[in-house]
Amino acid sequence: MASHIVGYPRMGPKRELKFALESFWDGKSSAEDLQKVAADLRSSIWKQMADAGTKYIPSNTFSYYDQMLDTTALLGAVPPRYGWNGGEIGFSTYFSMARGNASVPAMEMTKWFDTNYHFIVPELGPDVNFSYSSHKAVDEYKEAKALGVDTVPVLIGPVSYLLLSKPAKGVEKNFSLLSLLSKILPVYKEVVSELKAAGASWIQFDEPTLVLDLDSHKLQAFTDAYAELESTLSGLNVLIETYFADVPAEAYKTLTSLKGVTAYGFDFVRGTKTLDLIKGEFPKGKYLFAGVVDGRNIWANDLATSVSTLQALEGVVGKDKLVVSTSCSLLHTAVDLVNEPKLDKEIKSWLAFAAQKIVEVNALAKALVGQKDEAFFAANATAQASRKSSPRVTNEAVQKAASALKGSDHRRATNVSARLDAQQKKLNLPVLPTTTIGSFPQTIELRRVRREYKAKKITEDDYVKAIKEEISKVVKLQEELDIDVLVHGEPERNDMVEYFGEQLSGFAFSANGWVQSYGSRCVKPPIIYGDVSRPKAMTVFWSSAAQSMTKRPMKGMLTGPVTILNWSFVRNDQPRSETCYQIALAIKDEVEDLEKAGINVIQIDEAALREGLPLRKSEHADYLHWAVHSFRITNVGVQDTTQIHTHMCYSNFNDIIHSIIDMDADVITIENSRSDEKLLSVFREGVKYGAGIGPGVYDIHSPRIPSTEEIADRINKMLAVLETNILWVNPDCGLKTRKYSEVKPALNNMVAAAKQLRTQLASAK
């Protein structure tokens, strides 16, 4: 029985690629230095898979930024603003598309399906001249071959690439992206021909959009695309890989009827219903790549259950046509448990990171051909039993409190317009009030202080003194810039979710469990292994200290329950909604303590609410019900004069705008600038929004500094569709990834733009 890995983490076990990228971007190292780090990482990954016995090892899943951006480069689909004049696309053009540069903004970034990974959205139109402009896929295949590893080159499939794109600025919004299929397929043919010539025997096309609700026109595009590619693909084994959900019945029929295709990959962790379709009918003589090992979570596989699933599939497709695989790319999980010497031993026995998942996949493949590793399976069974019976997993009081929530809607007693009036009397803010989203730049010195405190190299008194000094600097800077509602800058936090998880029961933390979010940005998701509660106040001390340094309103900064849930590795032994309600109760306690401490503005970030939306429309209502309910639980008990903010970023919110309204926050700040102000179209189409709203006026994920005029222009576009008295002025997101040399002038221009428009509005009265 053969084994397969869909894809692998690319940052490295100790984030080697992250540091190499940032060094290159800062001009401290050369392109050759970056390429050397990348080549070393690829080599070690391929060797690791080969040594474990993996037959189908992927190549071209490595990326310097994002696989969708790699495909844009492959196709030569560079927007004109980047000044590319043809030829092989180099780092300058590639990273300008991803990050922007001094003169032009970056391309839009959004979430990859329902994960916390982000991709760069292609900007396409009828005038794009596609050409084969990046030979990365072929180069990496040859690189692996030279190391003695025969790989399966992986490409984003042509139909999914187009369906995940957007019409470029100036192109009609109803432009059919699929009309470009005949223009991109010649480039795909060139790549495939080169891979064949280089000796490839398999090729993998990732077509994850097949799990979405697709109409017949979109499904027909798959049929057309692979019929057109059939002659070029002749002589190759072709795998179409899907992941993240069930493949709907009509899509399954389309997929299994595609011409020139040898094998189909399915996610059997999040797509268990697909099993029934396969048992009902599967094309004779085709391979089934069975994704039974979870690529998105860190729990050890239940090997006994997986063997049963695989044996049932064997009976349908035949032993020689079944391949054991991961459910999706391991990009979405941490790299290696070997790097976790301090993790609690019992909890560690319940886990499997990417390196361990490779071992699991191969152990399952061997077990199915009579080479079962009895000791490995016995240890797995012991760990599974331990997790089910461990007393540290269950807290009856928490379960009882969460269960009691279901009888109420948890809405604040007064409507939002009355609350805003009460808040304005207390806060006395100007028209177009300015604020930021929460974090300020995390300097090298600040990171050193946190690191030394964690390592017990400095005392708690020294740590508190250093953090208070940093807060004081941030407060003073905001006052000098004349920002209206301040933040303390979050100097005590490395990560917005990790910080809270460390103070809540039911959470565990890795030392090196980093996962790529976008580009060089990595996050270290907490591990929720048990029932969640708040033993003591988490932010009151720092927020109170910050408020004592200024007469202006100081925001208390919290992460909301849905975002903590969606940005964690969540226990898989109870419904996600149950865990979310438990977190909501913990955050509710914190909100009420902040209010008692005199904090009149409290922000409860729900950056990831949209991210958790199921991929199928039939499941949206249930998710949105418990997610929005969880948010309302957090602040149902506060007074009318306490202003509740929330923040959301980098997703398409237009389809859930009514649920956002139903959250009943007093003010929402929301990403807007990088997505071409797509959010504003909702209000142009007549959606009425009565609460405060701050669509972001500039993109913080780019080093580019916007001018006062540019920001004023954005605010004017907002004023065309939103009432003056509800509009706030703020950046797209937190500022922790930026430098002070970028933040100060950008915020200065933002405040200047707000003041300029206040003057204009006053004179127009």
TrEMBL record:
Pathway: Amino-acid biosynthesis; L-methionine biosynthesis via de novo pathway; L-methionine from L-homocysteine (MetE route): step 1/1. It comes from the Eukaryota. Residues 432-755 form the Cobalamin-independent methionine synthase MetE C-terminal/archaeal domain. Pfam families: Meth_synt_1 (PF08267), Meth_synt_2 (PF01717). Keywords: Amino-acid biosynthesis, Metal-binding, Methionine biosynthesis, Methyltransferase, Transferase, Zinc. InterPro entries: Cbl-indep_Met_Synth_N, Cobalamin-indep_Met_synthase, Met_Synth_C/arc, UROD/MetE-like_sf. It catalyses: 5-methyltetrahydropteroyltri-L-glutamate + L-homocysteine = tetrahydropteroyltri-L-glutamate + L-methionine. Zn(2+) 2 binds at H658, D662. Its cofactor is Zn(2+). GO terms for biological process: methionine biosynthetic process; methylation. Catalyzes the transfer of a methyl group from 5-methyltetrahydrofolate to homocysteine resulting in methionine formation. NCBIfam families: met_syn_B12ind, PRK05222.1. This is 5-methyltetrahydropteroyltriglutamate--homocysteine S-methyltransferase. It comes from Rhamnella rubrinervis.
